[in-house]
Amino acid sequence: MYVSCNLFSNLWIPFFKLIKKYIKFPITTYLCSDIEISEKILEKLKEFDVKIVIYGEKSNISKNGNLYKRYEHYLNNITYESILYFHDDMFPSKMIDENELITMLNVLNSNNNIKLIKLSLSSSPYLKGSSHIFHDTSFIKADNKRDSYIFNIQPMLIKKIFFKNMINYCEENYKKQKITHLNGGLELVGRNYFENNLNFIALRVVKEVISVYGGSYGICVNGIINDNVDIILKNNENIELEVYEKKCIFKVTTEELNIFGDQNKNRLIKHLKNTKNK
């Protein structure tokens, strides 16, 4: 399940090129986006055997936006009960081992209380967590009361029914937040869902299963290329990202800014002003 939106569509083909390179076993792949995809991109996507799920309305992660409705729609259109989740700009950087992924899947399904497994060491660590072994494999188990970012948007395995329930919880509780978080509040309110359900188990790998370019931030931050990741991709993968003014991955307009989320919007505006003055 690759969740993105038209605003980030310049990342799609590079992402699927890397998925094709680093996943050498059969896996059903869904591209989940907001509005209809251009014919140009659709033609390029034919190479990758991707199922497409469209929400039908432009993405809006600001307050009173449609982030949670979008996720609910995507999950309702995925037939599998366990999901390998990727977000916008989390590009795999190394081969993904099928046996390791199967082991993770077996762990996920071995206990009703295990809801997700973070697969990347770039994901937020469970600093207050504890060591546990499942299926002869070591993990760090989150402390639901004390750990932050128990759910975050780096690559993970997650149970669909739990994901749907968490999305419903987020939608009901998100408006209590004072400011739009970078990812529409999904990580902040998702963390609260674990705190309110202490029987839920979230695990993070000790040995990395999926490595990503750009670390925890991925390819971009607030729509801006992260450090020199574009140069690294070109050198390592022969992939050239299409970028706009000031290394933004989309053309910045007033309309896009107003649906981009408060934090994202403010940081992007600050970036554009600072680079303009240099």
Give your account of this protein's structure.
- With 278 residues, the protein is an alpha/beta fold.
- The protein contains 9 helices and 11 strands.
- It has helices at 12-22, 39-45, 67-76, 98-108, 160-173, 186-195, 229-237, 254-258, 262-276, and strands at 2-3, 30-33, 51-54, 82-87, 114-118, 130-134, 137-141, 156-159, 201-205, 220-221, 224-225.
- The strands form 2 sheets. The chain has a 9-stranded mixed beta sheet, sandwiched between helices. A two-stranded antiparallel ribbon has the order 10-11.
Tell me the total number of β-strands.
11
The helix content is 25-40%
What CATH calls the topology is: Spore Coat Polysaccharide Biosynthesis Protein SpsA, Chain A
- CATH superfamily annotation: Spore Coat Polysaccharide Biosynthesis Protein SpsA, Chain A
Low-confidence stretches: none
**Strand fraction:** 15-25%
CATH class: Alpha Beta
Task: Write the CATH architecture name.
Answer: Alpha-Beta Complex
Largest sheet: 9 strands, mixed
Q: Let me know the average pLDDT.
A: 90
| Spatial strand sequence of the major β-sheet | 3-2-1-4-8-5-9-7-6
Task: Please tell me the total number of domains.
Answer: 1
Number of helices: 9
Instruction: Assign an overall shape.
Output: globular
- Note the run of SSEs as H and E: EHEHEHEHEEEEHHEEEHHH
Assembly type of the shown chains? single chain
